[in-house]
Design brief:
Strand order of the largest sheet: 1-2
Structural class: mainly alpha
Strand content: under 5%
Oligomer: single chain
Distance between the termini: 31 Å
Radius of gyration: 18 Å
Helix content: 55-70%
Number of strands: 2
Order of helices and strands: HEHHHHE
């Protein structure tokens, strides 16, 4: 069975996202912003990989199945999904990299939780840099777990 280009692009994006997340978690003490993936990561990297692959492969299998029944609709939906994935990823990274102080973030509970976790992590690993004026904010955000820098 030949897979459609959009399916392959979405699969590549999902795998790249997974690899990027694993790299950030392993090298930058990052966290996962997506609550589902955060819970998976708390259970270990193997769980994160298994959940991510399941949440990638199953929908793509449904897309390929639906493509035979409603090709025009599925093509538009897949193209929209690609655009949405790029947009969410780009906005998340921009948000993290532009916010160097908690007052620069929107006053939503998730942002407050992330900053509280960043500051707690900073206090534990760098007790001499707990003053916000001396320490930079989260450097990367692509999506979610509480450890230091957020990942998608």
């Amino acid at each position: 069975m030949k897979l459609h280009l959009q399916t392959l692009v979405l699969a590549a994006m999902g795998l790249a996202d997974l690899c990027f997340t694993l790299w950030l978690v392993a090298t930058l003490d990052a966290w996962e912003a997506n609550p589902v993936m955060e819970a998976a990561l708390r259970n270990g990297l193997q769980t994160l990989v298994a959940v991510k692959l399941a949440l990638l492969v199953l929908p793509l299998a449904i897309v390929e199945w639906a493509w035979r029944r409603r090709p025009a609709f599925v093509r538009r939906a897949a193209n929209l999904a690609i655009a949405g994935y790029v947009l969410v990823f780009a906005l998340g990274i921009a948000r993290a990299n532009l916010a160097n102080h908690p007052t620069m973030l929107p006053p939503d509970p998730i942002s407050r939780r992330i900053w509280a976790e960043v500051l707690l992590n900073r206090e534990q690993h760098h007790p001499d840099q707990t003053d916000l004026r001396d320490a930079p904010g989260p450097s990367v955000w692509t999506g979610g777990t509480p450890m230091g820098t957020a990942v998608d």
